[in-house]
Amino acid sequence: MESQGGTRRHVVDLIRGLDPERFDVTLIHGTSRLDASFVEDLPDLRRRARLVPCDALVREISPRRELSALRRVRAVLRETRPDVVHCHSSKAGIIGRLAARLEHVPLVFYTPHAYSFMAPEFSGRRRAVFVALERWFGRHATTLTFNVSAGEKRAALAAGIDADDRLRVIVNGIPDVPVPSRAEARAALGFGGLGITEYAPVVGVTARLVGQKDPMTFARIAAEVIRRRPDVHFVYMGDGPMESDVRAYWDGCGDAVASHTHVIGYRSDAEITVAAFDVYLLTSLYEGMPYSLIESLRAGVPVVATDATGNNEVVRPGVNGALFPVGDVRAGAAAVMEMLGNPPDRDVARETFLRRFLASQMVRDIARHYRGELTPSAAELRSEDALKEAR
What are the coiled-coil residue ranges (predicted)? Predict the structure, then answer.
């Protein structure tokens, strides 16, 4: 697995949710991209699973390291002789599934968390290579693929990755934990020191400042909305390589915008302090199934998001938020303005979380496959996917 972002969150929640009386868990993870949340989770994870760090498991393409990672994973599988291997993310998915096939593991599952070929920056030959790899491993080294959204499954089917009956939609879920009030969250984030008053509307996001999240569209929407409503503040909770681009853009928009826009960096408590926002704005180019939107709904915060895979299965326009076309600043600003002026009830937004996105439901569905209780017949899987999409 890669120990960052949604992949990390999914794996951690899965380990915490599995019954230790029925499952003996070993986690092989990379070390080059450990995020702060994963480091904080380590003591608890060590009580629940055997952790095996693998320095050679890196995101960058490196044949030497990939061969080293393959040898390391094979050695662990040979030692533990598992009944089930579950691989997460594209790169680790290839190495893990190849190792499992070579070591004759009976059941091999895979969760891509957004296929690499879905990224818009990959086209032509690079995309063809990613598709070919996913297709071969899906058909020859995987018992079943768990897609985190119906849109991700549709992308797999369109690319010919595997047959319909070997792709199963199990959406991400999170625990229903206590969340601070709006006022408590604002105090925890130090909004007073940023010049954000108690009653000021705040539009925010908790995300990395990276290309996939398209933070420049967030920045441009913020400037557009503030010009129309000077009382609104925009808060970007996260860090990343595009932070300087966002700050420079806002500074260039003049004091009126610069004084109402804030990048406050990474916060380990972001999943609950999202309650400080009045509207959550996510401008991603693509997603698998974003945890941040689910966290927002748990806190009762309505969402404005791009009409991208994953996003459009969390947001229900007119119920818990609104959608707008990817990269469309004008439409995004209009959606934010509408959400600020006519927000849905927070309890209604939270109800959409409780109905579909609980971690207990996610873990239960995956665990039943681990135990071989669900036969992946085409009819069953199509029926269950349709039921989930309708919820």
Answer: none
CA-to-CA distance for 197 and 26, rounded, in angstroms? 48
- In one-letter notation, the amino acid at residue 23 is F
Which candidate, 124, 312, 110, 329, places its Cα nearest to that of 217? 329
Contact 276, 202 (CB under 8 A): yes
The domain defined by 5-174+358-390 folds into: Rossmann fold (3.40.50)
Counting every residue written for the chain, the total comes to: 391
The rounded mean pLDDT for the chain is: 90
d(CA 93, CA 209): 25
- Checking if the pLDDT of 158 tops 50, the result is yes
5-174+358-390 and 182-356 agree in CATH topology: yes
From the candidate CATH numbers 3.40.220.10, 3.40.50.2000, 3.20.20.450, 3.20.20.70, the one assigned to the domain spanning 182-356: 3.40.50.2000
CB 365 within 8 A of CB 385: no
Query: What pTM did the predictor assign?
Result: 0.84
pLDDT in tens, 232-254: 999 999 999 999 999 999 999 99
Largest CA distance in the chain: 63
